[in-house]
Design goal:
Length: about 350
């Protein structure tokens, strides 16, 4: 017994010493595993953040700010149905989110009524149904800007439509600047500086209006932290193909450029003012989102028309109920909002 107790004590001491030597190694291994796990999560989050967004990533929620004349997602029209094409809208919103994740020094193509000069004729041109010069993609010379291949200065290759969004690739201090098309045309091009209006590298496009020329409807969407919020869903009427004066509303993505409380318009083929359209927001060429036209320059605003949401019948513009046009007018801001036209 005298020998057993010292031996037992020695064994306990040796065990404690062994544990003390092993414990720091175990702690170090646990810390490393935890740090590795955190790093894997960080890398996964970084990869997810950089991943291009698709339509499946776009989350839509409804919280209407304008509630008059609201249409359902799918609604009856005559003996058929019309819809809001949410899948197609999500595709456009994903595209907008993707280019805004990059650092862009933005500009807008501007040549309303050829105010910056008529564009030269492209090398390969054709005349459309309106007898106007157009490029091979169908974009008219009138109110558009010329796009030149790098190093080319004699003849442009194609035209850029008024209201298109671009990214500067060179300083805007030169007579000829290099740009990249973000909406309505692709690729890198040289363009005379006077056709591009800079809007800087801090512009954020959080307000979007979508016009559907097939279903004759319009909706407003606002970007939020967790997706996009639908703010209105209304009937609309778009432009019709009727040369020489009426034209279809062009499809594409455009920057809202200017607004007028009253947009006065001429009688076809004259310079005589026939009437006005209230609460007008222009996005390309002479295309405005506006209220019901009044065929009297001194007339009163008309709230609604039976023709809204039926068939194309305007000259290029997008007609709305006048109160909805007022909502859009107050809600979107020139240079910071986009108008998407889909078919």
């Amino acid at each position: 017994m005298r020998y057993t107790l010292p031996l037992l004590f020695s064994a306990i001491v040796l065990t404690m010493v062994s544990c003390q030597r092993t414990q720091p190694q175990n702690v170090d291994a646990e810390d490393k595993a935890k740090q590795d796990s955190i790093e894997r999560v960080r890398k996964a989050e970084e990869e997810e953040r950089k991943r291009p967004r698709t339509a499946d990533d776009i989350v839509l929620a409804k919280d209407l700010l304008f509630e008059k004349y609201t249409l359902e997602d799918k609604y009856e029209y005559k003996d058929t149905f019309r819809v809001f094409q949410w899948d197609k809208i999500k595709e456009r919103l994903a595209y907008i989110e993707n280019f805004q994740r990059e650092h862009n020094d933005y500009g807008i193509i501007v040549n309303y009524k050829n105010k910056n000069g008529e564009a030269p004729t492209v090398a390969n041109f054709k005349r459309n149904a309106y007898k106007r010069v157009s490029d091979t993609l169908g974009t008219e010379r009138y109110q558009s800007a010329p796009l030149y291949k790098e190093g080319e200065t004699k003849l442009p290759t194609i035209y850029a439509r008024d209201g298109s969004l671009v990214k500067y690739l060179s300083a805007d201090t030169l007579a000829m600047v290099k740009i990249k098309g973000l909406t309505n045309f692709e690729g890198e091009w040289d363009i005379p500086k006077r056709y591009v209006k800079p809007i800087g590298d801090t512009a954020t496009f959080r307000h979007v209006v979508v016009v559907d020329v097939t279903n004759q409807n319009i909706c407003a969407l606002e970007h939020a932290d967790n997706g996009w919020i639908v703010r209105s869903m209304n009937p609309a009427t778009t432009g019709r193909h009727a040369p020489p004066y009426a034209m279809e509303t062009p499809t594409g993505i455009f920057v809202l450029q200017e607004q007028k409380t009253k947009m006065f318009y001429y009688r076809d083929g004259t310079t005589s003012i026939e009437g006005f359209a209230p609460w007008a927001s222009r996005f390309t060429n002479g295309a405005y989102i506006h209220g019901v036209p009044v065929n009297n320059p001194k007339g009163q605003i008309v709230e609604y028309s039976w023709s809204l949401g039926t068939t194309p019948r305007s000259h290029m513009c997008v007609r709305n109920a006048s109160s909805h046009a007022k909502f859009v007018y107050d809600w979107i801001k020139p240079g910071l909002s986009l108008v998407i036209v889909i078919d």
